[in-house]
């Protein structure tokens, strides 16, 4: 059986607020909001979903919550942009906490890092591909 990466889901206090933040900060658009507002999904090449923490906890039990005042989890979400500097400025203006200003990597990619309203680490980067 062949498998592959299908998307990411982030547990948050308020799924609708998280989706609204990603619209303002990163220019994403909502694809779906559940009737209960416990789940929101964003448009993109791969799904990015937000699930209310209380709803997630019912199914999996306790987990470490994403919070701005805590250290970020050892994972990041990547948002690809042709203009990383403008994307970084937009995100910070929308309330993202700056982590690393835009800079170039030795392989030619431009990257920067912010944390979203819940403390999730987000990389803003130029497109990349593996040769």
From TrEMBL:
Annotated Pfam families: Glyoxalase
Location of the VOC domain: 4-127
PROSITE patterns: VOC
Domain of life the protein comes from: Bacteria
Record-given protein name: Glyoxalase
Species this protein is from: Sorangium cellulosum
